Amino acid sequence: MELLPFTRPDIDEETIAAVADVLRSGWLTTGPKCRELEAALSLRAGGRPVRVVNSATAALEFALRIAGIGPGDEVITTSLTWVATSNVILAVGAKPVFIDVDPATRLIDLSQVDAAVNERTRAILPVDLAGLPVDRDRLNELAARYRLRVIEDAAQSQGAHWRGRELGSFGDLVAFSFHPNKNMTTGEGGCLVMNSEDEARQFEKLRLQGVTRNADGTYDCDVLGGKANLTDIAAAIGLGQIKRLDQANLRRRELARLYFLKLAGLSVDLPQADFENSNWHMFQVLLPAGLAAQRAEVMHLLREAGIATGIHYPAIHTMSLYKARGLAQRPLPYTESVAARILTLPLFPAMHDADVDRVATALRNALATLGAREVPA
Question: Which of 55, 135, 319, 335 is the most buried if burial means most Cβ atoms within 10 Å?
Fold first, then answer.
């Protein structure tokens, strides 16, 4: 039986040909294709400046540095995310302050921000888990009240909206990811949406060793930068992907609706059924609390049925690096409950409707094997 992956990038022949053209051009690193991709991303962001890099991790770290976040500062964030979200806070010398998630949305619980703010708090770094946007109205109101910068980890929410406005077209600093498992990819890569050309110039220096090039061919280095520029090879992939992003996200929504239909009655918690704002990057269920310790067995049974699954994510504050630094300072019961029970099911645009049936049947059988009862209709 062919394995159904939990995600798979869809690269069309036109994009493959465009990559071949770049390879033949003799210009492989950052060049005209990167500028073309930045222009296309800026168009979706309402004309705001956008710059690309080789990962969303770099975009987030540079965003923190542009915002002036450094040693002694605190950044409020969530523990239910890929570890890069908080690693970048440590990388600039600041301290991540984890607050719990809302059990319904699995997103950072903004009602807990007031209690977490102190004189060292400089920013909020929310995450749009699975492509479901954090409440941007409340987020930006809190930021204004406490004079905080907002660095949006929108790595999973490319093409998502908040009340009719595409993410990235408003707000403060917004980072997107183009990793192969995202809704659009460049192979590896990411970008940052900024507020001004001055911030964009800072970003350009940070992504390439802090260098500013002069008209006479000389250059200067006045800040400590890194090596995070994107290649034109990658940008060519991104240009093909961005043309198909809306179509791909529409198909994701169709598949998500089908999941709700097919999983009805199972003893799992389904995600929030948001078909207005979310881009449905992932479809994640929560196993019954009684099966949390048997999640690996559920995954194994699904694998035997030809279904690949994932865990997104273990709670960061429970990881060795963070425990050793004493960064698990407040109770996060909902975060820990969700992290222990969450299971990512296959969802990608090339899936067929019948694939959703396969997943639903396999999950129903796995739960029954392990003794979970179905919920009466």
Answer: 335
